[in-house]
Design a protein that fits this description.
The strands form four sheets. Strands 5-6-7-8-9 form a five-stranded parallel beta sheet, with no helix packed on it. It has a three-stranded antiparallel beta sheet with strand order 11-10-12. Helix 11 runs parallel beside helix 12. Strand 8, helix 14 and strand 9 form a beta-alpha-beta unit. The relative contact order is 0.03. The chain contains 16 helices and twelve strands. It folds into five domains: about 60 residues, no CATH class; about 35 residues, no CATH class; about 45 residues, no CATH class; about 160 residues, Ribonuclease Inhibitor (Leucine-rich repeat, LRR (right-handed beta-alpha superhelix), Alpha-Beta Horseshoe), CATH 3.80.10; about 45 residues, no CATH class. By secondary structure, it is an alpha/beta fold. InterPro entries: LRR_dom_sf, TMOD. This is Tropomodulin isoform X2. It is found in: Cytoplasm, Cytoskeleton. One of its GO terms (biological process) is actin filament organization.
């Protein structure tokens, strides 16, 4: 496709012919070749211009023709015909003026898509196929037949030689004499899961024998799913348990309202008001009971005044992220709850701001050991997990020191050795035996400190 460059200057159309020639005011198609030579003294530029051609015809004779004069001699009909032949590349013009196609037919009515598709299909079926230059003959090969290149198996042989491992005569003899079931068990022990199916793997782990007909080439059939009984409905009496919590019944240490439907907000408020004065309830589970923000805020106020509750579960409810933050903030005041679960709420995604706020609150809580909440960002997950692990380690150490009787034996100036309580009994026996035999025992007397 030829490219036409148009150089036009419409600023002064009425100047003389010489000025127009100087300013290149005509439409021409040119090809320029410029050679530049630079020296330290001067710069010379040489330009060679070839004659422009259109369809092989020299256009140099039209260089001095005035386009305005030609356009002024045309009639309106001729200008309209010329405008239809020219498609101006101007993005500021509307498409109706840029397009040279004009339909002179009258509209036949509104668009009927079904009739249009039927008409297109009918024309496609009635239009004859374009005849082939070389007709198709069955059984003849048209063109060159593709022949695959010969495969080079040398690389595969070299790879096999490199992979081969010498296991020794003992292992080679054991593996060669092993049965197929024993090889499958060995693959399961080594963790080669891709070499076996699930039935073979679990049979190897349970040592229950390989299924019949399931070798290396066996087909795994669908196993019959286990039928589990339906969970019985929760028959907990709501009013009775509220009265027990209000009366501070020492027999009620675990309250479970899971999956109880149609609990009114008044019942929740009565329970949370009773929870403020209760001193025996240790676990409260309110999963899938329709807890909303209004009642959850009342629960947060009750948690701040309760000092015995250790486990709180409010999963699968309609609590917003901001109220979840309020509940976690209430855990800081009570400092007795060790496990708090509140996942699967109305909003599945908490957001970065809420998660960072929850992370800061958890890091300030020294008693929380378990948190059931889905955190999307890695930073929040890692910080919360690390803090909970530190709390668990510290609690374990504190419980060990509180429940175990410790013995400190001094071996020098301000130097003591911590020993378990069992060592004290043996040492007392040794002291008694040494006193009978009149022998010296190191660390005897005032250097023993029992706590």
């Amino acid at each position: 496709m030829a490219t036409t460059e148009v150089f036009q200057d419409w600023d002064s159309p009425h100047e003389n012919l010489s000025s127009k020639t100087t300013r290149m005011s005509t439409t021409r198609t040119t090809t320029k070749t410029t050679t530049r030579r630079e020296t330290s003294a001067s710069t010379k530029t040489t330009t060679m211009t070839t004659a422009a051609k259109l369809y092989g015809k020299d256009l140099s004779e039209y260089d001095d023709v005035d386009v305005d004069d030609l356009l002024s001699q045309l009639s309106p009909e001729e200008i309209n015909i010329l405008a239809k032949e020219v498609d101006p590349d101007d993005s500021f013009m509307p498409p109706s003026q840029r397009c040279s196609y004009e339909c002179d037919k009258d509209p036949t009515g509104p668009l009927n898509r079904k009739k249009l598709i039927d008409h297109i299909n009918k024309q496609a079926l009635e239009t004859p196929d374009i005849p082939e230059l070389k007709p198709y003959v069955p059984g003849t090969v048209r063109g060159k037949k593709w022949i695959p290149p010969p495969q080079d198996n040398q690389k595969e042989k070299e790879a096999d030689e490199q992979i081969a491992i010498d296991l020794g005569d003992e292992y080679e003899q054991a593996l060669s004499a092993a049965s197929q079931e024993e090889i499958i068990d060995l693959a399961a022990i080594l963790g080669f899961h891709s070499m076996m199916n699930q039935d073979q793997y679990h049979a190897s782990l349970l040592n229950s024998g390989q299924p019949v007909g399931l070798g290396w080439d066996g087909i795994t059939k669908a196993s019959q799913p286990k039928v589990f009984p339906m969970e019985p409905p929760n028959n907990t009496d709501v009013d009775a348990t509220i009265k027990q919590v209000h009366d501070d019944d020492h027999m009620l240490a675990d309250l479970n309202w899971n999956n109880i439907k149609n609990i009114s907000d008044e019942k929740f408020i009565q329970l949370f008001e009773a929870l403020e004065i209760n001193t025996h309830l240790e676990a409260l589970s309110l999963t899938n009971v329709g807890l909303t923000d209004k009642t959850a805020l009342r629960l947060a106020d009750a948690i701040e005044k309760n000092s015995t509750l250790r486990v709180l579960n409010v999963e699968t409810n309609f609590i917003s992220p901001s109220v979840i933050v309020r509940l976690i903030k209430a855990l800081l005041k009570t400092k007795s709850i060790e496990e708090f679960r509140c996942s699967n709420q109305r909003s599945q995604v908490l957001g970065n701001k809420i998660e960072m706020e929850i992370t800061q609150l958890v890091e300030q809580n020294p008693m929380l050991l378990r948190l059931g909440l889905h955190l999307e960002f890695n930073d929040a997950r890692h910080r919360v997990a690390a803090h909970l692990q530190r709390n668990i380690d510290r609690i374990c150490r504190v419980e060990y020191w509180e429940h175990a009787t410790m013995v400190a034996i001094g071996s020098g100036y301000y130097t003591y050795t911590i020993l378990p309580a069992d060592f004290l009994k043996k040492r007392k026996q040794n002291l008694a035996l040494a006193e009978r035999n009149d022998t010296a025992v190191p660390g005897r007397g005032s250097d023993i400190l029992v706590r």
